[in-house]
Write the structure tokens for this entry.
Amino acid sequence: MPLIIGVTGSIASGKSLVCGTLQELGAAYCDADKLVHRLYDPGTPGFDRVVAAFGREIVGPDGFIDRRILGAKVFGKPQEMRRLTEAIGNIGEAVKGVIDGWRDSLGPDGAAVIEAVNLIEAGYSAWCDQTWLVTCDRDEARRRLIARNGFTEEEADQRLASQRDPALREPASDFVIRNDGDPTATVQAVREEFDRIQALYREGALPPSRFHGWWEAVRARRTGQGATS
């Protein structure tokens, strides 16, 4: 079966650079966020549910949901984000379908990468052989959002406020990439780590992902809290 790498990180951290480098090295690729967007395209049940939950004002002139308007309603608001996730529906099923397809179609020397903002928290890492975390300084992320997306400082800060602290994700990650400086250094680090783990994987010597131990600890804490509540 192919080597499956999950890549996560906060907005504007540099996930696209990391995933693009892996693609150049021959890995198949899927952006889970774009996959999710297709679940609420016009004509889908997800579209109807999201519009019912957040109002017709989120629909743009082209008939598609305007994600900038929708984002302003949910970013930094955990309860609203949960409501959106519930309205979209079947997200995990769609992600697992892509990964299962890779395992069926790619050979043992193949590789694939799934990019997802909530890769760890949603449990998608359980379907991956490795979890990689991309991080960068908050001020640098703000600068990128303003330059890349045309956000105001207020809009950029709203997006950043909804992001999880990278330190909370590190225990579940097998490789942490700091992407603040020269992008060539990031590319080189990705190339070296990919070569290293791919060699181990082909030899059957790649250790289990750290995610599994982290996930079990999280489940144990939740079970303990439920028993004492």
